[in-house]
Write a structure and sequence with these properties.
alpha+beta, 347 residues, homodimer, six-stranded mixed β-sheet, seven-stranded mixed β-sheet, 13 strands, globular
């Protein structure tokens, strides 16, 4: 079984329903309705494990603290929720000093303050091997949170920001480049090490009333879009010429399109908007928020397809993103491949 | 720094306040007030790590799932909250089969159904070494949750159930006895492997209006009572003859009183009641709930003291319970010692 199949099995057999639970397992976060409250509560849990999700030599304790919180806030952003509270459980191997713990919390709290999230509790334990951080984040939303399942055939797909930049940063780290020599390298490293969750964009998008489905991009759009399609009961097509790729990676012997499709940890938002409303959304979307790009559309026919341009021949896209239970090696960017075995060339 | 000092440092520097947060870091769970709701929300996070908190050969996957949830529900019980929702993050090393995952969830869900808690989400990851389960549990309470800090000098201290039975079970496991040969051994093993969180007792105690302070016993009463005293700004004395010890352990070359004082993971409740109301509480406490025992009282003078009987000479009790950052070896029961080095003899 792969990761998604295990999650499906758990959801079907053990997932709760009723009693104030609006959305359980299967979305970026769970949605609850506290009795008597006018707010929705949104709850998510994500862990970072040493040598699976990060290497200790690649980042500072402050960067690790930042990232552990960021991946959780990104799930709240995907629901359009305002971060409110979080707990942090740290398992630490022998030899970790109090100053390390303090720096880790400092990095976490800098990001928390920026997004107005309060640390309310947690757990501390020794770890027999490796650092592990598990965070549970809670957000609130005045309107019903946007689920990934809301998109309909014909909807236009948008993403925020740039895709594949975090994977480009990871490629640099894997070559031992922990410091960037120029602005592009530093941007790529920052995307990987200290991702900025798109909370403000997510809240605006949820509040504008134009977005039908939304999720965050954690495992690469080839895999995550397939998940959105599964939830919506649709297929999709994306247009290669429209992908906001990280072009600088071309100079680093990387294919920016492959990075954009299969590189994980961008923590950008993917969202679906009715075709009738897409122009209006682009017109009113605030310029102070990260830029948005149309990248394709949902379609009735199942499967995720790729076209270089609108009108050019479609090719089926295989999920090349990251799956915890498919790859036996430590988490890393993996080149995407078409089913016919030809590598995807940059558009 | 020991575990409590690290938690203090985190609480002082980074602990949140305001914005609906009634109680942050420092109690068994955090307490929140959702906007517009008449309920209090209570949130706790606890992790279990292989070779720190358990050994894989000691328990079945179902027992592990049970225990990972039980330690969290026990924190909700300590606040008097009704369990409502939980998330489960599992990190699993290579070689764990889907059937193992299923059995683990089955054990978790059996306990969850008993206490009416819904599984609402989680995370799954490969682990480079060892099984780790982190659970975040959410409960609700119509009345203000009982904090550990509410006790006052003169208050009578009570505990539920039997103390030291889980530690007696652990002692059996450490001798390779994973199956009990008689009812006492099986009770001890069950206490350690599948602890029963005292949710119903906790809710009754919080609802009766007679309890001023409450916490659960996870690290041994010698350490946990010192924590309650710290939170209340008091000292305490306990009466050896009143401790509900697990007498059967005497036949297993264990000292039941040491186990009761310093053995962890009993997950019973410790609570403080005004001296004027203690008799009334005992009279009205329902017989269907786990029995309660007076074990001592809070006092104005700092320090935790031990007397064999009311009226006999007090001796200062050192904290001998479990601290994650003090003991360099895997978590295990540790014999308690007086500061003068003489071992505590059974009363």
């Amino acid at each position: 079984m792969n990761e998604d199949q295990i999650v499906q099995m758990i959801r079907k057999r053990y997932g709760g329903s009723g009693r104030g639970l609006i959305q359980g397992i299967g979305d970026d976060a769970a949605v609850l309705r506290p009795r008597g409250s006018r707010e929705y509560w949104v709850i998510t849990t994500d862990m970072l494990l040493e040598d699976v999700d990060f290497r200790r030599t690649w980042l500072t304790p402050a960067q690790l603290g930042h990232k552990a919180l960021a991946v959780n806030l990104s799930d709240l952003a995907a629901m359009g929720a305002q971060p409110r509270y979080f707990t942090a459980a740290l398992a630490l191997p022998p030899g970790i000093r109090p100053s390390w713990i303090q720096a880790c919390y400092q990095g976490m709290m800098r990001l928390a303050r920026k997004h107005e999230a309060l640390l309310i509790g947690g757990d501390l334990s020794r770890s027999p091997a490796g650092i592990q951080i598990t965070i549970t984040a809670i957000g609130t939303s005045a309107q019903k949170p946007i689920l990934r399942s809301g998109g309909r055939p014909g909807d236009i797909l948008f993403v925020t920001g740039v895709l594949g930049r975090a994977a480009a940063g990871l490629a640099l780290l894997q070559r031992g480049r922990t410091r960037g020599n120029n602005p592009a390298e530093r941007r790529a490293l920052n995307s990987h090490l200290t991702p900025q969750p798109r909370c403000k964009a997510g809240m605006w998008l949820a509040g504008c009333g134009l977005v039908r489905g939304m999720m965050d991009l954690s495992d690469g759009i080839s895999m995550d879009l397939a998940r959105m399609c599964e939830a919506c009961g649709t297929g999709a097509e994306i247009f290669g010429s429209r992908l906001p790729v990280f072009a600088a990676a071309r100079g680093w012997q990387c294919d920016p399109v492959e990075l954009a499709l299969d590189g994980g940890e961008d923590f950008e938002l993917l969202f679906a908007v009715s075709a009738r409303k897409a122009d209006y959304l682009e017109a009113v979307y605030p310029s102070r928020l990260p830029p948005i790009h149309r990248i394709g559309r949902l379609r009735r026919e199942r499967g995720v397809f790729w076209r270089v341009e609108v009108g050019s021949a479609p090719r089926r896209l295989a999920s090349g993103g990251f799956d915890h239970f498919r790859h036996p090696r430590p988490k890393r960017w993996k080149a995407g491949k078409f089913p016919n075995g030809t590598k995807l060339s940059g558009a």
